[in-house]
């Protein structure tokens, strides 16, 4: 299957975007340099095109109950205008995907990772068809729709993001707090205006119809040029999320990990009515799995890569899940699963990179936190 083009493909090329295949799409990985783009987001404002993400809509009288059964967080606590970070688990507690859940006036919307769109869709549909594990829901009133191909998603992130969005939004944005949204117009087109992001900075994510992509893009750039808005790609999206220690599916969480050892216990609502798929293994993991996702810094300029083994005093104690250079700290950083008690802050560890042992130490996380 050939990769899909974003609605704004030509606009990215015009800005000098370096386009690469990613999760079934042709995406801009960078425009100038990853470090320059990273610092633009940390210090000013940048715009990402993340339209590769997947969006599913859920309607019907049983949509809330279905999503509550399928996800770890408590969907019933959501009010219209709120967004929730959550996860879906396999029966053994492994992570199917991490996702966002939006409660709109007449429906729910989930936002899933691009590489998992088909897998997530099939997982959800299979449980809907069997009454999502409860025979009493065999004829559940839930209508699922995959709207991923109809949506353009632009993320405006950085200290001046609110200033930029305020200029082009047709609704007040100052009172949209973190993990809330408003429906309104941005640049004259209907949009979901969500105060969310994956960078560790303040910012907004704007969901619009694909047909409105160019109009929104032009409006953003007209308002953004005086603010020195920069286009930013997937490369610095990864370095930004790593500094903030946000998990990346396929690296830090996957089918072999559970949310407790990944530090995501705060999205696990074990006492919600009806529970959720994977609840029992997660409850057992509360007592400890023997390992925990931890952060580390390296003593020299070498980068630790995903899959590298972690050692202490010659004994293997873990594995690297993410690694890269932190422009803010000006040093390599990473995350990995480390066996207890070797995950204590300050512990000296070694990372085996193709036979070369890199000196590192367990560090406090996140590596960067917005003041």
The residue fraction in helices comes out at: 10-25%
- What is the structural class? alpha+beta
Shape: globular
CATH superfamily membership of the domain at 4-51 and 149-242: Probable tRNA modification gtpase trme, domain 1
How many helices does DSSP assign? 8
In percent terms, what proportion of residues is strand?
25-35%
Descriptors:
371 residues, Gyrase A, domain 2, alpha+beta, six-stranded antiparallel β-barrel
Description:
By secondary structure, the protein is an alpha+beta fold. Among the domains are: 4-51 and 149-242, Gyrase A, domain 2 (2-Layer Sandwich); 290-371, Beta Barrel (Elongation Factor Tu (Ef-tu), domain 3), CATH 2.40.30. The protein contains 8 helices and 20 strands. The chain has helices at 9-14, 34-43, 63-70, 117-129, 161-168, 213-224, 234-243, 279-285; strands at 4-5, 18-22, 25-30, 46-49, 54-59, 83-89, 95-103, 108-112, 143-146, 151-157, 181-186, 189-194, 203-209, 230-231, 291-298, 309-312, 315-326, 331-339, 348-353, 356-363. The longest helix has 13 residues, at 117-129. The termini are far apart. The model has no long low-confidence stretch (mean pLDDT 95).
Quick overview of this protein structure:
This protein is of the alpha+beta class and 371 residues long.
Fold blueprint:
Elements: E1 4-5, H1 9-14, E2 18-22, E3 25-30, H2 34-43, E4 46-49, E5 54-59, H3 63-70, E6 83-89, E7 95-103, E8 108-112, H4 117-129, E9 143-146, E10 151-157, H5 161-168, E11 181-186, E12 189-194, E13 203-209, H6 213-224, E14 230-231, H7 234-243, H8 279-285, E15 291-298, E16 309-312, E17 315-326, E18 331-339, E19 348-353, E20 356-363
Parallel strand pairs: 1-3, 4-14
Antiparallel strand pairs: 2-3, 4-10, 5-8, 5-9, 6-7, 7-8, 10-13, 11-12, 12-13, 15-18, 15-20, 16-17, 16-19, 17-18, 19-20
Helix pairs in contact: 2-7, 5-6
């Amino acid at each position: 299957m050939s990769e899909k083009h974003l609605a704004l493909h030509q606009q990215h090329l015009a800005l000098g975007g370096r386009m690469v295949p990613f999760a079934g799409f042709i995406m801009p990985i960078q425009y100038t340099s990853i470090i320059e783009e990273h610092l633009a987001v940390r210090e000013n404002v940048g715009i990402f095109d993340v339209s590769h993400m997947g969006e599913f809509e859920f309607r019907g009288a049983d949509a809330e109950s279905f999503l509550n059964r399928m996800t770890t967080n408590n969907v019933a606590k959501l009010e219209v205008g709120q967004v929730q970070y959550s996860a879906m688990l396999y029966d053994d507690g492994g992570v199917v995907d991490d996702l966002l859940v939006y409660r709109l006036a007449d429906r729910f919307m989930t936002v899933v990772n691009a590489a998992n769109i088909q897998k997530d869709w099939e997982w959800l549909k299979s449980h809907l068809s069997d009454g999502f594990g409860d025979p009493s829901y065999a004829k559940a009133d839930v209508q699922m729709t995959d709207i991923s191909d109809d949506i353009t998603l632009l993320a405006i992130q950085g200290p001046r993001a609110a200033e930029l969005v305020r200029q082009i939004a047709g609704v007040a944005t100052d009172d949209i707090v973190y993990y809330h949204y408003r429906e309104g117009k941005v640049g004259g087109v209907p949009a979901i205006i969500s105060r969310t992001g994956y960078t560790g900075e303040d910012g907004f994510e704007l969901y619009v119809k694909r047909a409105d992509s160019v109009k929104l893009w032009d409006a953003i750039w007209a308002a953004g040029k005086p603010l020195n808005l920069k286009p930013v790609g997937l490369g610095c999206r990864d370095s930004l999320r790593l500094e903030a220690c946000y998990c990346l599916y396929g690296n830090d969480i996957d089918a072999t990990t559970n949310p407790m050892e990944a530090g995501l216990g705060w999205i696990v609502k074990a006492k919600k009515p009806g529970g959720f798929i994977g609840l029992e293994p997660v409850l057992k993991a509360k007592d400890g799995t023997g390992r925990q996702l931890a952060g580390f810094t390296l003593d020299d300029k070498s980068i630790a890569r995903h899959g590298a083994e972690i050692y202490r005093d010659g004994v293997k104690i873990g594995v690297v899940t993410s690694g890269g250079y932190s422009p803010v700290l000006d040093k390599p950083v990473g995350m990995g699963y480390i066996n207890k008690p070797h995950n204590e802050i300050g512990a000296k560890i070694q990372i085996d990179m193709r036979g070369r042992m890199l000196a590192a130490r367990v560090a406090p996380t996140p590596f960067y936190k917005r003041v």
